[in-house]
Amino acid sequence: MKEFIVLSEEVKAGQEKGLPIVALESTIISHGMPYPQNVKTAREVEQIIRDNGAVPATIALIDGKIKIGLSDEELEMFGNSQGVAKASRRDLAYLLATKKLGATTVAATMICAELAGIEIFVTGGIGGVHRGAETTMDVSADLEELAQTNVAVICAGAKSILDIGLTLEYLETKGVPVVGYGTEKVPAFYTRESDFDVNFQLDTPEDVAAMLHAKWELGLKGGAVIANPIPEADAMDQAFITNIVEKALQEAEENNILGKNVTPFLLGKVKELTEGKSLDANIALVKNNAVVGAKIAVAFNQSK
Ligand code: PSU
Ligand code: MN
């Protein structure tokens, strides 16, 4: 395993000092945002993590290695590269063996974080059960990973490109707690609320840390979804975004988009149809998640 894992200087030093570390994914950099906003946002998110007392570890596959923490040059190169492969669980071995650039999804980032001993991971949104999954069977590998890998994912809920109700059913079957951070409702990424209730509401980083501590002390395998709503000021209008998501879903069907291309296609369409408004919301919610995630990492570190 050591053969494949490379820690950045910052992460290595942080681990030696016993500092809290926060994992960050890289699909959001390569497939979620355009250059140069992607690199700028990634840098700002890392700085927010530092400002809140933790060490950021952006994870990506570069030159046959799992990089846990990227240097400034690596981040710039990665964010400005064309054709970076989207890497989920099934893709990891192939991309490492062929030394291709790989952007880790939530699932793959969880795997890499666990290998590096990192329990807390901040992102924008998780994958889930897609609408129409009863015929397409399109269920994100992120959900299986949450069922088996001991990493907590701080996110702004699930996008309405997904079937949020079915996603919650799947997580329930797999025993994955969905916690609302300061909310009773499952947030829907661009908006603060969906029609669905979270399993549990927790209001402080200490309370979340205590729940994670109890879960893993008991040997209950798997992660947790810590759903943190987008700040009020950055939230989008519900009717506006619903309309756009419907259009994006229709175009995906007309173009017969399948497999791993579905999520990037839908995200790209939403961005195009909102004329960039969705990008501003996306950046704001990731930064908000970074604040909360770093605080949870600090609290969890103290409970260890
Ligand atoms: N949802 C978002 N933004 C994203 C993703 C999902 O709102 O960037 C990315 C994440 O990396 C997630 C992946 O892990 O898409 C899920 O892809 P799929 O549905 O193919 O499993
Ligand atoms: Mn899928």
UniProtKB/TrEMBL annotation:
Top-level EC class as recorded in UniProt: lyase
Keyword tags: Glycosidase, Hydrolase, Lyase, Manganese, Metal-binding
Reactions accelerated catalytically: D-ribose 5-phosphate + uracil = psi-UMP + H2O
One function term, GO molecular function aspect: hydrolase activity, acting on glycosyl bonds
Residues binding substrate, per UniProt: K86, V106, S140, A141, D142
InterPro entries in the record: Indigdn_synthA-like (IPR022830), PsuG (IPR007342)
Named cofactor requirement(s): Mn(2+)
Positions of Mn(2+) binding: D138
Lineage: superkingdom: Bacteria
Cofactor-binding details, from the entry: Binds 1 Mn(2+) ion per subunit.
Signal peptide coordinates: none
E.C. designation(s): 4.2.1.70
Active site: E25 (proton donor), K159 (nucleophile)
Function: Catalyzes the reversible cleavage of pseudouridine 5'-phosphate (PsiMP) to ribose 5-phosphate and uracil. Functions biologically in the cleavage direction, as part of a pseudouridine degradation pathway.
Assembly notes: Homotrimer.
Recorded family membership: Belongs to the pseudouridine-5'-phosphate glycosidase family.
Name of the protein this chain belongs to: Pseudouridine-5'-phosphate glycosidase
Gene: psuG
